Amino acid sequence: MRDFIDAAAFKDMVLCADAALHANIQMVNELNVFPVPDGDTGTNMGLTLNNAATELRKRSFDSIGDAAGCVSSALLRGARGNSGVILSLLFRGIAKKLKGMENANTADFSAAMAAGVDAAYKAVMKPAEGTILTVSRLASEAAVEAAAAGASMENVLNCAISSGEEALEDTVNLNPVLKKAGVVDAGGKGYIIILKAMLASFKGEIEAPTEAPSDKDVEEAKAGADFTDFNTEDIRFSYCTEFIVERENTKDPALLRAFLENLGDCVVVVDDDEIIKVHVHTNDPGKALSEAVTYGHFVTVKVENMKLQHSAITNAAPANDAPTPKEEEKEVIAEPEKEFGIVTVCAGSGMEALFVELGADRVVTGGQTMNPSTDDILKEINRTPASTVLVFPNNKNIIMAAEQCIPLTEKKVIVMPTKTVPQGVTALLNFNPDEGEEVMVETMKEAMENVHTAMVTYAARDSDFDGHNIHAGEFLALLDGKLLGSYTNIKTLFKELSWAFDEFKPEFITVYYGENVTEAEANDNATTITGCFPDAEVSVVCGNQPVYYYMISVE
């Protein structure tokens, strides 16, 4: 029996894990105990892992170190939500431990699992037990112990899964919210699904899918490739660029690989003691070549326009809107025109317009139900014409994804820990670059900490949560992230919110109404608040946000 994992086996294991997680996304989502419709754990983990699977299918690998490195990079850039970011960190630690290894034996792989857990724990400000962190930690500890005792690779993975499943069952006892709901942690469940699929792949019980998982019916799939079914416009990067550089210095080729991954896709960088051979699809071959020449002189260079090639094959006219290299360069990295720039995350045309009016340079569309990825945020950071970019996530589940951008760009990034859109609005109202960076950031943090946020949404499913018997379709009121109650009447809900606001002695109250609320309805419901706080300044603003009927800022 094989007692090591090579590059091919690792690639298949990850592809099988992706397929298994995809098949169980809804089941993992349904473990979420909070009945608010949001970007669920299964969806976030599934989208994150699928990003790695997509990259794996493009390449083959000579070593497990390279394969793990590819997975790590793809996961980091595609990470969505906290669960996705933590998953990316687990694989990032694995990649660092396996770097330079051709194969991994039981000791190597178990140590890599433990390194992944260390990376995840270090990245989380306040690690909470009873989560995916606990499950992965106890699984890795069991794997290390089994490997030290001389167990086979199959038994090492079996021990990891067994301990992980025990830890998963115990999350009910470690987390009071889970215990009340009587369910296990969703992220931990997703992690166990991944481990089980990886073991089944290693044992040869399942084969890695040759295509990405799809929700389409099987009969819709077509046999064989048909170039006419692929539009020229679908080619994102126009130029297939290949070259060989003769090494003339000690610069690390990994830096070139990282540079090219920001410039295009299908990146392959192979190096030895004498040469570096590169393949990349990009819209700016000139920029790729300019960076490459800093490593040494060129031996060969080949640049081909794939859009022209495809058009010739299909007898179609080239796309008129194909970006030129110069256009793409300006879009990818904006030259600094000022010291400070603003990137904010929000959803809804009204909210986007408000943030732009307050000075935001770029707006990332996202929030509940659609957590943006690290790469989504990174692109807007790079497009901001400033040397220092302040990012306002405006959602606690997006903060970690934003923080992953810090080492991925040449710009300085400051992530403001705004957990709600109203906090982001207030922080921006206090943005004053003339104060200097340190004072300005501290002023904005103090301002946003004085903001209380109420949210009005609906129950996505029946639930018994925190002492509330909730029925699907009822109005839900949340205050600073905690459930205030569920209601069948919106007027009653606003009265309850007003009584709760009383302890804050509010001076300013802003009611942002969502896409399914009319202006008349919003003004009518706001009168309840105005009647309770006649001395407060109450404003009603069209946010047009999804998911939440109302977002209310109380200061």
Which descriptors would you attach to this protein?
555 residues; alpha+beta; six-stranded mixed sheet; 47% helix
Radius of gyration: 26 Å
Overall number of strands: 18
Cα shape: globular
Low-confidence stretches: 35-39, 215-232, 312-331
Number of helices: 21
The residue fraction in helices comes out at 40-55%
Range of strand content: 15-25%
General description of the model:
There is one protein chain. The chain has helices at 7-23, 25-29, 41-58, 64-78, 81-98, 106-123, 132-148, 153-174, 176-181, 186-202, 253-263, 285-292, 306-314, 325-332, 349-357, 374-382, 399-403, 421-429, 437-449, 490-501, 519-532, and strands at 4-5, 104-105, 239-246, 264-271, 275-282, 298-305, 338-346, 362-365, 386-392, 412-415, 452-458, 463-465, 468-470, 475-479, 482-487, 508-513, 537-542, 550-554. The protein contains 21 helices and 18 strands. β4 and β5 (275-282) form a beta hairpin. Mean pLDDT is 84; it is low at 35-39, 215-232 and 312-331. It is an alpha+beta fold and 555 residues long. Strands 15-14-11-18-16-17 form a six-stranded mixed β-sheet, with helices on both faces. It has a four-stranded antiparallel β-sheet with strand order 4-5-3-6.
